[in-house]
Structures are given as structure tokens and as C-alpha cells.
């Protein structure tokens, strides 16, 4: 991977959108509706606002240090020792994060379509693809993205449109069934997955071409908003169709697809939808693996990034096969532990760096002004 | 053999030159050396050397032509000419007929003889003359064999690079059409020509092309496809990165599009580079027919591509893993026919595909009268026999046949080859992982396409980076008036992309 | 278990074959990192093939579950433990 590889701001936004939507569109809204019922969309809005704040944070850091990744300017702000200490949990959690995405896809397939195939074969196949994608470099990833994005979003909207005949708008009421506690709980879940995860983009923002830099802010905000709108749409459709059941059925979008029935010709097409959804997972995992490889190489100051792609991917593969193989424990970590873990490992370093950057600026101002 | 590049000067002594040429061409029995005499006392000697097999058979005496230039009379024996006259006249480039070249060293003399020239040595003059007299058997320009068309010109390029360049110059009468030459190969010394339209071609593409061509030098280039290996980005990729054509009109449209073309002496194929993925679905005929029809045909080609790549694997995945996706009636029919077949769908598909590929390969080499009959009968008989012996089901035969036909629908043969290769891994992965496998396979193919950069241009040029107007131009043919209106609305230097 | 071992061995072999040329040209630091990753790979691979429950990343993450549960119950006093 040539360190000089650069992509445009629009391409970065597409990657951003893919990253946020890829796996969440399938997993959410089930846990949210499970906890908060009809108020799940309010929770999502709360989480979205928190996500916007985080985005502001990393954009501020990008504006201050446009050519360096998070780890690089951490080195200059906090010194090498603190950086290493701070980012070791970052990297460790990210290793598992990549594995977690593939665990989710594997679980998705095992429950729905490929019941007989052994988990390790499916995971291995996916990881081989993901590793090859990352090895090709971010330019290749960015080049593949637009068409796949259109494909994925096309299918999402297609599903939402095709189940229109099953909408029951009355399911949306009452708006707040059980009080504000569940809303916060669901917001906590949604914040952990996917919004707190967007912090890691600070590692690859320097890949944007310098002349595109002024547009980055509005493009990324737009991307986040688009993601929010899509998830919101998915939650609302799910509630309108499945009603009180939406919390009990996992993989809501897939369930919606199963219900599509138009004049006997278009029925049972959930497999097609399922396959197009794996594109989202695959892409998110590829982007994240790329970020992970980049982080490791910046943290350890390696010069040849490409060499470690395969071993890192292999470690993630093995993590996906040895940790949380039980569905119940997986659910527990995603819903309960992950937001906290996320914040400690991803968000805290970023906040620390923002504080450090602000202090440094103020210090410089005070010294400069006299 | 350094004889063609020898820097040894032509000697003034005729005998030395004679000895040099004789040792060089020892055992080349088709070489003729004639000794002539001329001059006031018949004491001046000259030698003419040529390959009888290379020059025109009309026994034209070029020495007489040379001397003719020096006498005031039309005809007659050259009794008034001396070698000093000859030397003076030709060294000062007197207007001679026919056109003559003055050679200074023996290396040039040897390559001149090899090039079909008549080389004449004079006594006491340290230069030689060379007259072009080449006449080797060539094909007449005819209908392009591999790219016939219903409407449009029916000429094809031939094996002579100069004539081809002439044909192209005749179609694009502009000084912006530039051609550059180079010679490659120690032994074959083929002339390679490449051309482009200055002002339309992008300078960075041209630079990259030149850089790659510069490495050829001593390699023997026997055919245009040898050249392809030097130009292309990845030799291992199944996907072609250059286009081939034998039709001058296709070449002209490619030049107008800002492409670089290359051709090799001795091969009629012309390379158009860089070839981007979407271009392999275009045929020049599209612009000769009506626009609605052309647009539909293009969509047909895209579906042919998808079928040729994915039909067998989709069939395997559907019948093995995802039977619920097939409508019930069809499913029953398929299962009915598949009863009694001892092999799983994958093996059955492999066997039938293998037979089909064998048939295809065999059919290429059969002489024309037998060829078509054998392939049709062979296909029918084998297909029927396979069904009756329960090796394959009728659905499988249909799938395989449809795949084969679809791959013929693509205008460029080298793209169809790519699909033939890629079908098999996709079948394997579909048999193992079902629909997920197909998705992964398609993603891997897409990833590979995204990393190819022929001559620095992204292979998936209009798809990603997404350029909707170019994509639309490729998939939908617009009438030229509409295209030109669009072009004139754009910036003046925007070129009309198809 | 045998199938898992074969799968693991095949993947490891493929990876090493692909990387051997780059490894030869790499500097000491990259080789060290690669080696470190290989150690992790073999450890995890052993866990995978033998299906033992030895310390892994999830043991580390489970330490956070306690505090996380407390946060959840603070946010949502009415929820039962999910």
C-alpha cells in the first residue's frame, strides 16, 4: 500500500456511509425495538446527535492536523510513551471489532441461509476476501465502493417499498410505551453500535486529497445524516410491519424481506436481499481492517504496511472463531458491554487528544500574544 | 549476428565489398550477385546484389537506371559515364529516377538486401546505392474475417504495416494524426508502428505507453499479441487490457476517442490501448444502426456477459442450496429431469462444460467444410447421448449451451476468453458455499477489476470513479446530433466520448 | 477437529507462501511484528482447533461487563437484565 494513495472527499464519504450503515442496517433495529418498543426511533435520534458530536470532534482534529492520522499527531501532542499506552487498548479492541463483524455475518448466515455450512469455512472465506481487498489498497477499495453502495441501498429501499402493502401505521403508537428509561437504554446501545465506532475514521482522514479538504466537513455530515435517515427508515418500517414483534425477531430487514409477497412471482426473495446485505458487512469489515492495519503500522512505526495485512486478518479470523461462539454471550456483549468498551478504547483517546490540542493552542496563543 | 549493425564503411575496393557480402550471405542460395561493366573503355565495374526471392520478378536493371541519370541521351550503352560522375551525382543527391538511397556502411548494405532492396556497389567509390524493389506475396484487402458486419465498410487491414498506416491516413486526413515507428527484434527486425491523434490523446497515457514500448528493443515481436504483453498492466489477469480489431473504421473511432493504436508488420491485428472494461461491450456497428436498436443490443450484450459468467454457478447454487428461490413449477420440472442422475449438480456441470470446451477447441482447427458440420452434429449427438445415458440432465445441457452462446455474443473475443476462465472457479465456489460463494466470487472479480490500471487509467473507468454521463453513453446509444449538442455545451476541449 | 486443523494449516500455509518474498525484503522491525502476529496466530489457532477455553480477548472484555450492566441499570431502572 503506497502511503501516497489518496482518495477524494466524495469517496471518503461513501466509505464513511458504508462503514456506518453496512452492518447496522441488518442488526439494528431489533435490539432497539426489543428494549424501547415504539420509541426506538427516538433513541436512534439521540444516538445520532451524539454521533454528530463525535464527528465534530474528529473533524476538529482533522482541521488541526490534516496530514496526520490520529496516532501520528497523538505522538506529537502527548509524546510517544503515552501514545503507545493510550492506543494499545485501541488496537486490541479493534482486532476484536473486525472479528465481531464477521461473527455477526456468520451468525446471520447460520440462522438464515447457510445452516449446514461450518462456521469456520464461512468465516475463512469472508476473511480471505476481506484480506485481499485490504491488500489492494484504499484506492481500490474506494473505487469499488460507489457501485456496491448503490446496490446495497437499492436493495434496502426495495425491501421497504415492497412491504408497503403490509404497513400498519397504527403500530407506531403509542410513541412512548414504557417511559424514558428504555429510551436511554436503547440510545446507549445505538450509540455503541454504530456511532461511537466512527471515531476510528480519524486514522484514515489524512488519505483525502488535500485539495478536497474544505469539502470534507459538509460531505461527512451529509453522510452521517444519510445513515441516520436510513436507519430511521428501517426502524419505522420494521415497527409498522412487525409491530410489537419487531423486538423479538432478530435481523429485522431480513424478516421484512421474508414477508414480501407480490402475486406469487416475487416471493421468498429474502435470500437475494440477504446476499446483497453481506456486501455491507464485507465492506465495513474491509474498511475496518484497513484502519486496523494502518493503526498498527503507525503505532509501531512500520514502513511496509502491506506485509502485515494477512497475519492481522488471520488473527481476526481466529478471534472470530474462538471468542463469543455462543449466541447468548454475543448478544450480551453487543448490547451491554460494547458501548462502554467502545468509549474507553476509541472515544477516550480522541477526547484526550482534543483536550490536549485545545490546551496546546491556548498555550501557544498566550505565548504568541504577549 | 552483428552484420546488420556493422559500422564498417563501404570500401572503395569492389573486391572487398564482394568478399564481405559473400561471407555474410554464405549458403543463402537465393542471393544473386551480378557484375556489370560500363564506362568509356568498359573498364568500370559495378556489382548489384539482391535476393531474387524478395524483389519484383520483372528483372528490372537498376544499374541502368542509375547510369541513365547521368547521360544526356535516353537510351544507349553507358560508355560516357565514369565512376567519378556517378559518385559526384549521387553524393550531391541529384534528382534520380527511380528514388535511390545512398549507403555508407556495410551494415546498411546487408540490411538493405534483407529488406528487399537492390544494392549496387561501384569500383573506386566508397558508397553504395540501394533501390527499393520489394515485392512479396500479400493478401488483398478483403472482408474482415473475425469482425463481419451487415452495414458499414467491409475492408480489413492486411499484414503490411505501411499499407495499414496508409489506409488509416486515408480515413483521417489530418496532420494531427501522428505515427511513430520503431524496429524490434535482433533477428526478425519487425517494424512496429504506433499512432495517435495529437490533441485528443492524454499526454500521460502517451508517456506511459512510450515508456513501456521502449523496453522492447531486442525482443522478437512476431505478432501484435506479443506487443500486448509489453503494454498491459498485468499479464496474469484473465481480463484483456487492450482491444484488437482488423477494421479501419473501428480504429478511426478509437483514435478519435483519444486512444493509442499499435500495429506490427506481418500481423493484420491492430491493438487499441488502453482498453477499459466498458469498451469491450461496444462494437463499431452500434453507430451504424438506429439508436434504439443499438441501445437494446448493448443491454443484450451486458446480459450476455452476466449469463456467460454466472449462469452455471447460479444454477448449481440454486439447485443445491437455495431451491426455495426457484418458482415451484420450474423446480418440479428440474427435479423431475434430474432424477436418476448419479452425479451432483457440480460434477454434472463440470462434465458438460468440459465437453463443450473440447468441442469448441476442436472446432477451431477443423478445415472449414468439415468444421461446422462436425460441431453441430457433435454437439447434438453428444448432448442427446448424454441426456439419454443419464449423465446430464436436459436443464444442464441448456445451461451449458446458453452459456456458450452468450460468450459468443460479446464483440471482443479476448473478453469472452476471460469469462471462459472465470466460469470454473465460480462454479467451484458456488458448489461449496452456495449463493454466498457467488457473491464472494463476484466481489473478488470486481476487486480484481478495480485494481487493474492499463496505461495508468482505471480499468473500471466509468463505473468507478462513477461518471454517470460516460456510463450512460456506454449503455445507451444516443443519436449523434444529441451527442454533438452535449459536446458543444461542454468545455471546448472536452472530446466526444462514446 | 481434523477438518479444523486442515483448514487452519491450509490458510497458514497460503499466507506464508504469499508473504515469503516480502518477508525476505523486510527490515528487522517488520519481521519482528510479523513474528509477534504469528505467535498470536498459533496460540489462537491452538485454541480454535482444540476448542479449549483458555484466556482470550473475551476474558478481557468480560471484565467490563460488570460496570456496563451498572450503567444500563442506571439508565433504565425498569429494564430487566437483557
Automatic annotation (TrEMBL), chain A:
Transmembrane helix recorded as keyword: yes
Compartments (UniProt record): Membrane
GO biological process: spore germination
Record's bilayer topology term: Multi-pass membrane protein
Keyword set includes Transport: yes
Pfam families listed in its UniProt record: Spore_permease
Coiled coil (residue ranges): none
Top-level lineage group: Bacteria
Chief place where the protein resides: membrane
InterPro entries documented for this protein: Spore_GerAB (IPR004761)
Keywords: Germination, Membrane, Transmembrane, Transmembrane helix, Transport
Annotated TM spans: 12-32, 38-62, 83-108, 120-138, 145-168, 188-208, 220-243, 272-295, 307-325, 337-359
A cellular component annotation (GO) from this entry: membrane
Similarity comment text for this entry: Belongs to the amino acid-polyamine-organocation (APC) superfamily. Spore germination protein (SGP) (TC 2.A.3.9) family.
Listed NCBIfam families: 2A0309
Descriptive protein name: GerAB/ArcD/ProY family transporter
UniProtKB/TrEMBL annotation, chain B:
Transmembrane domains' residue ranges: 299-321, 391-410, 422-449
Keywords: Membrane, Transmembrane, Transmembrane helix
Superkingdom classification of source: Bacteria
Pfam families found in the cross-reference section: GerA
Any Gene Ontology biological process: spore germination
Coiled coil (residue ranges): none
A GO cellular-component term linked to this record: membrane
UniProt xrefs under InterPro entries: Spore_Ger, UPF0353/GerABKA_families
The family this protein is said to belong to: Belongs to the GerABKA family.
Name assigned to this protein: Spore germination protein
Annotated organism of origin: Cohnella terricola
TrEMBL record, chain C:
Keywords: Membrane, Transmembrane, Transmembrane helix
Membrane-crossing segments per the record: 32-50
Keyword Transmembrane among record annotations: yes
Domain of life: Bacteria
Protein name per its UniProtKB record: Uncharacterized protein
Annotated source species: Cohnella terricola
Amino acid at each position: 500500500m503506497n502511503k501516497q494513495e489518496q482518495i477524494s472527499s466524495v469517496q471518503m464519504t461513501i466509505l464513511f456511509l458504508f462503514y456506518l450503515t453496512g452492518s447496522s442496517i441488518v442488526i439494528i433495529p431489533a435490539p432497539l425495538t426489543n428494549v424501547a418498543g415504539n420509541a426506538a426511533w427516538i433513541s436512534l435520534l439521540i444516538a445520532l446527535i451524539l454521533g454528530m458530536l463525535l464527528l465534530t470532534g474528529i473533524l476538529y482534529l482533522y482541521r488541526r492536523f490534516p496530514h496526520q492520522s490520529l496516532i501520528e499527531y497523538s505522538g506529537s501532542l502527548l509524546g510517544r510513551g503515552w501514545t503507545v499506552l493510550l492506543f494499545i487498548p485501541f488496537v486490541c479492541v479493534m482486532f476484536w471489532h473486525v472479528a465481531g463483524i464477521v461473527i455477526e455475518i456468520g451468525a446471520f448466515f447460520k440462522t438464515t441461509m447457510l445452516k449446514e455450512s461450518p462456521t469456520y469455512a464461512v468465516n475463512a472465506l469472508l476473511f480471505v476476501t476481506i484480506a485481499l481487498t485490504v491488500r489492494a489498497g484504499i484506492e481500490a477499495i474506494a473505487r469499488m465502493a460507489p457501485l456496491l453502495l448503490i446496490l446495497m441501498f437499492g436493495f434496502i429501499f426495495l425491501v421497504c417499498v415492497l412491504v408497503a402493502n403490509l404497513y400498519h401505521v397504527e403500530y407506531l403508537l403509542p410513541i412512548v410505551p414504557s417511559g424514558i428509561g428504555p429510551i436511554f437504554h436503547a440510545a446507549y446501545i445505538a450509540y455503541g453500535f454504530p456511532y461511537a465506532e466512527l471515531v476510528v475514521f480519524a486514522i484514515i482522514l489524512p488519505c483525502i486529497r488535500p485539495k478536497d479538504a474544505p469539502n470534507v466537513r459538509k460531505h461527512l455530515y451529509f453522510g452521517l445524516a444519510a445513515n441516520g435517515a436510513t436507519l430511521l427508515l428501517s426502524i419505522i418500517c420494521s415497527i409498522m410491519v412487525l409491530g410489537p414483534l419487531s423486538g423479538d425477531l432478530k435481523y429485522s430487514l431480513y424478516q421484512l424481506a421474508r414477508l414480501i409477497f407480490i402475486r406469487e412471482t416475487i416471493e421468498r426473495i429474502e435470500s437475494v436481499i440477504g446476499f446483497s446485505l453481506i456486501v455491507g458487512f464485507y465492506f465495513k469489515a474491509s474498511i475496518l481492517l484497513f484502519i486496523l492495519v494502518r493503526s498498527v503500522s503507525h503505532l509501531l512505526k512500520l514502513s511496509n504496511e502491506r506485509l502485515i495485512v494477512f497475519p492481522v486478518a488471520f488473527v481476526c479470523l481466529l478471534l472470530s472463531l474462538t471468542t463469543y461462539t455462543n449466541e447468548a454471550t454475543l448478544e450480551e456483549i453487543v448490547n451491554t458491554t460494547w458501548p462502554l468498551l467502545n468509549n474507553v478504547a476509541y472515544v477516550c483517546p480522541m477526547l484526550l487528544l482534543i483536550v490536549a490540542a485545545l490546551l496546546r493552542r491556548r498555550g501557544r496563543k498566550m505565548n504568541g500574544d504577549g | 549476428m552483428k552484420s546488420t549493425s556493422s559500422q564498417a564503411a563501404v570500401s572503395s575496393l569492389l573486391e572487398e565489398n564482394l568478399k564481405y557480402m559473400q561471407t555474410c550471405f554464405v549458403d543463402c542460395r537465393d542471393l544473386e550477385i551480378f557484375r556489370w561493366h560500363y564506362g568509356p573503355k568498359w573498364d568500370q565495374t559495378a556489382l548489384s546484389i539482391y535476393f531474387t526471392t524478395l524483389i519484383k520478378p520483372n528483372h528490372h536493371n537498376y544499374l541502368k537506371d542509375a547510369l541513365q541519370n547521368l547521360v544526356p541521351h535516353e537510351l544507349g550503352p553507358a560508355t560516357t559515364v565514369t565512376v567519378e560522375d556517378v559518385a559526384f551525382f549521387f553524393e550531391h543527391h541529384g534528382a534520380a529516377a527511380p528514388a535511390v538511397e545512398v549507403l555508407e556502411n556495410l551494415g546498411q548494405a546487408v540490411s538493405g538486401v534483407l529488406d528487399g532492396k537492390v544494392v549496387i556497389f561501384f569500383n573506386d567509390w566508397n558508397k553504395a546505392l540501394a533501390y527499393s524493389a520489394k515485392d512479396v506475396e500479400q493478401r488483398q484487402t478483403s472482408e474482415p474475417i473475425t469482425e463481419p458486419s451487415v452495414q458499414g465498410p467491409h475492408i480489413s487491414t492486411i499484414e503490411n504495416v505501411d499499407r495499414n498506416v496508409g489506409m488509416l491516413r486515408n480515413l483521417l486526413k489530418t496532420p494531427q494524426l501522428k505515427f511513430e515507428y520503431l524496429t524490434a527484434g535482433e533477428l526478425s527486425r519487425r517494424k512496429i508502428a504506433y499512432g495517435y491523434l495529437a490533441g485528443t490523446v492524454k499526454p500521460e497515457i502517451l508517456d506511459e505507453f512510450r515508456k513501456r514500448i521502449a523496453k522492447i528493443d531486442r525482443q522478437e515481436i512476431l505478432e501484435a499479441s506479443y506487443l500486448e504483453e509489453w503494454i498491459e498492466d498485468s499479464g496474469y489477469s484473465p481480463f484483456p487490457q487492450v482491444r484488437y480489431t482488423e477494421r479501419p473504421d473501428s480504429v478511426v473511432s478509437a483514435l478519435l476517442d483519444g486512444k493509442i493504436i499499435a500495429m506490427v508488420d506481418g500481423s493484420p491485428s491492430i491493438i487499441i490501448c488502453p482498453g477499459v472494461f466498458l469498451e469491450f461491450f461496444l462494437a463499431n456497428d452500434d453507430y451504424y444502426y438506429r439508436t434504439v436498436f443499438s441501445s437494446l443490443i448493448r443491454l443484450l450484450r451486458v446480459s450476455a456477459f452476466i449469463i456467460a459468467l454466472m449462469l452455471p454457478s447460479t444454477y448449481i447454487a440454486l439447485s443445491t442450496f437455495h431451491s426455495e428461490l426457484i418458482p415451484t413449477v420450474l423446480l418440479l420440472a428440474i427435479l423431475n429431469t434430474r432424477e436418476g442422475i448419479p452425479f451432483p449438480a457440480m460434477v454434472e456441470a463440470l462434465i458438460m462444460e468440459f465437453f463443450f470446451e473440447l468441442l469448441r477447441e476442436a472446432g477451431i482447427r477443423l478445415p472449414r467444410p468439415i468444421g461446422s458440420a462436425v460441431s453441430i452434429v457433435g454437439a447434438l449427438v453428444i448432448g442427446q447421448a448424454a441426456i439419454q445415458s443419464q449423465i446430464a440432465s436436459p436443464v444442464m445441457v441448456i445451461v451449458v449451451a446458453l452459456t456458450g452462446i452468450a460468450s459468443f455474443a460479446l464483440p471482443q473475443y479476448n473478453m469472452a476468453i476471460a469469462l471462459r476462465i472465470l466460469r470454473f472457479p465460480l462454479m467451484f465456489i458456488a458448489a461449496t458455499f452456495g449463493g454466498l460463494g457467488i457473491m464472494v466470487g463476484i466481489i473478488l472479480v470486481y476487486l480484481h477489476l478495480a485494481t487493474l490500471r492499463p496505461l495508468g487509467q482505471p480499468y473500471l473507468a466509468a463505473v468507478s470513479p462513477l461518471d454517470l454521463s460516460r456510463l450512460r453513453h456506454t449503455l445507451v446509444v444516443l443519436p449523434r446530433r444529441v451527442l454533438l449538442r452535449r459536446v458543444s455545451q461542454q468545455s471546448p476541449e472536452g472530446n466526444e466520448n462514446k | 477437529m481434523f477438518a479444523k486443523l486442515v483448514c487452519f494449516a491450509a490458510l497458514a500455509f497460503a499466507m506464508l507462501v504469499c508473504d515469503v518474498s516480502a518477508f525476505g525484503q523486510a527490515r528487522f522491525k517488520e519481521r519482528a511484528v510479523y513474528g509477534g502476529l504469528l505467535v498470536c496466530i498459533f496460540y489462537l489457532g491452538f485454541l480454535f482447533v482444540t476448542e479449549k477455553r483458555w484466556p482470550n480477548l473475551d476474558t478481557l472484555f468480560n471484565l467490563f461487563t460488570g460496570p456496563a450492566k451498572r450503567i444500563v441499570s442506571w439508565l433504565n431502572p425498569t429494564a430487566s437484565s437483557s
